[in-house]
Amino acid sequence: MCIAVPMRVLEVRNDCDVVVTRPGRTEIANASFADEMPEVGDLVLVFRGTILRTVSQDEALKIEPDYPQALIRRGLALSQLGYADDAFDDLTKAIRLEPSAEAYLSRGICLLQQGNTAGARKDLEEALRRDDRSYRVWNILGAVSLKEGKEQEACDAFEKACSSCECAGIEASRREKICK
Predict the structure, then answer these.
(1) Average pLDDT, stretch 3-31?
(2) What is the CA 76 to chain-centroid distance, rounded?
(3) Looking at residue 1, what is its pLDDT?
(4) Can you tell me the distance from the alpha carbon of 93 to that of 114, in angstroms, rounded to the nearest whole number?
(5) CA–CA distance, 130 with 135 (Å, rounded to integer)
(6) Is 105 helix (H, G, I), strand (E, B) or coil?
(7) Has residue 142 got a pLDDT over 60?
(8) 3-state DSSP of 25-76
(9) Which of 87, 90, 83, 120 is nearest to 105 (CA)?
(10) Nearest 10 degrees: CA dihedral of 91, 94, 99, 104?
(11) Does residue 10 sit in helix, strand or coil?
């Protein structure tokens, strides 16, 4: 039985060719039959190389309950809305399914929003173990260090983020006279 599967849009090449991905698979799909042209980052429903339509995180998870990227996006959204327990559950499930730097970073952000700096640090350090060039991880780790009162450690993390071409953290901390 063939079913449509949710995939994330990586690149829109022209009026009909779109690069889509899911864990373990990247392909070019035809978007000429979709209701509207998807954008980079959208979740789309793909059937036999054809994009049917854009779908929400919740819809993607109804179709495929174990879709890590949808769990990560929904977990971050739930965390921002204040549903900490549901967010943590989604992000933990995403880690169990696909233990990626993005999944650990996302759960670290969730934990930081809950005020759990020790848990956030642990997840961010695991994210760095998997991808030590991620400026996003370094910036969030800098924020964790600031919350813990470890200013020099925060400055070091912001500097590492800046070495990956994202200098907002170090610039803001310099304006606030936290870092030199």
Answers:
(1) 84
(2) 8
(3) 45
(4) 18
(5) 13
(6) helix
(7) yes
(8) EEEEEECCCCCCCCCCCCEEEEECCEEEEEECHHHHHHHCCCCHHHHHHHHH
(9) 120
(10) -20
(11) strand
